[in-house]
Amino acid sequence: MRRNVPFYRHALGAADAARVAAVLDSPMLTSGEVGRAVETQLRAFFGTRHAGLVNSWTNGAVAALLALDIGPGDEVIVPAMTFVATANAAELVGAKPVFADVDPGTLLLTTDAVLSALPPRTRAVVPVHLYGQMADMRALRTGLDGAGRADVRLVEDAAHCFEGSRAGQLPGMHADIALFSFYATKNVTCGEGGAYVTNSDLLAERMAQTRLHGMSAGAADRFRAGAYRHWDMARLGTKANLPDLLAALLPPQIETTRARLPQRAALARRYDEARAGLPIRRPARDPGTVSAHHIYPVHVPPAIRDEAIAALTAAGVAVTVNYRAVPTRAYYRRKYGHRPGEFPVSDAWGEGTITLPFFPGMAAEDQDHVAAVLREQVAPLCRRAA
Predict the structure, then answer these.
(1) Where are the extended beta strands (E) located within 81-137?
(2) Residue in 96, 186, 239, 335 annotated catalytic
(3) What's the DSSP call for residue 12?
(4) Span 50-58, mean pLDDT?
(5) In sequence order, what are the beta bridge partners of 278?
(6) 186 catalytic, yes or no?
(7) What is the reported pLDDT for 197?
(8) What is the per-residue pLDDT across 132-143, written as a single tens digit (0 to 9) for each?
(9) What's the pTM?
(10) Contact 172, 199 (CB under 8 A)
(11) Which residues contact 266 (CB under 8 A, 6 or more apart)?
(12) Cα distance between residue 117 and residue 120, in whole Å
């Protein structure tokens, strides 16, 4: 039984190519009027005072930490279950990532976990809206304030959660800054890229600098009046601006992303129904959230995870792993001495998780094939390992 099922397929096409061609006909290829228009669209979408485009979530996070004056000697709390970029951003500015374990049901960072891991030199917490479900940002802010740590900044990793919400509230409402990813497999994509939103005038001013080498004016601004004007380097920054060539792909997707969310939810429900009764689990859904349904991960006994991946692959089903616990990766083991089992929830999830094919437009026959492989080949492996 074999049917080739791709892990992901984007929906960009000829109309999007025409938008890129229009940028090629303009004098400004990078960080010009097209990008500014998208930033206006983002402000309206999230209801924030400020928004900006960046060339990746990672570089946006580095720019954000630089804008918050976080660096050597500082500590940043991140969940142990996330993509390595969450921790890497702290490393890249010279701060130390301090890992906290996640909730065993939702796999989200909780206030109790943050307060338990809160060392004196903590300058920021980076909660992750894993797989599309928002962490409780209001509770995190209230908990930090109640612990006398109103000085700790909240930097939301909303890479998976562009259109998600919690109790009707969107990313960016309770954080100093929220950062999104427009990577190739994201719900809103331009291949590479990202964005940030903030309600802080000061932070927005600093981000305009730290995302572009710390410069006081980008190329479009230096020539805005039809003549060159000098610029200065106001603070240390990185190269994180997004070119208009990529920004041009975003407006139709941002406009329609909430309309497309029911398609993602329906795909998730079909998988849930197919998985019912099988010894294969997935993260719990918090009833207070509207998930962005970025991807569909499942968990099998760690002892048979690689066998399960091999069975799915042999049946033509493309899968990946999102994610193995960051403290178990070689770099963090070597540098900080983390040991397997130190973060038991994250470790256990990371050693048994598999991400299934999942994208709007996925054929029902393809999803049925994935479900059949789970039922007929993966489930017996799980029962054997039980």
Answers:
(1) 96-100, 122-125
(2) 186
(3) -
(4) 98
(5) none
(6) yes
(7) 98
(8) 999 999 999 999
(9) 0.95
(10) yes
(11) none
(12) 10
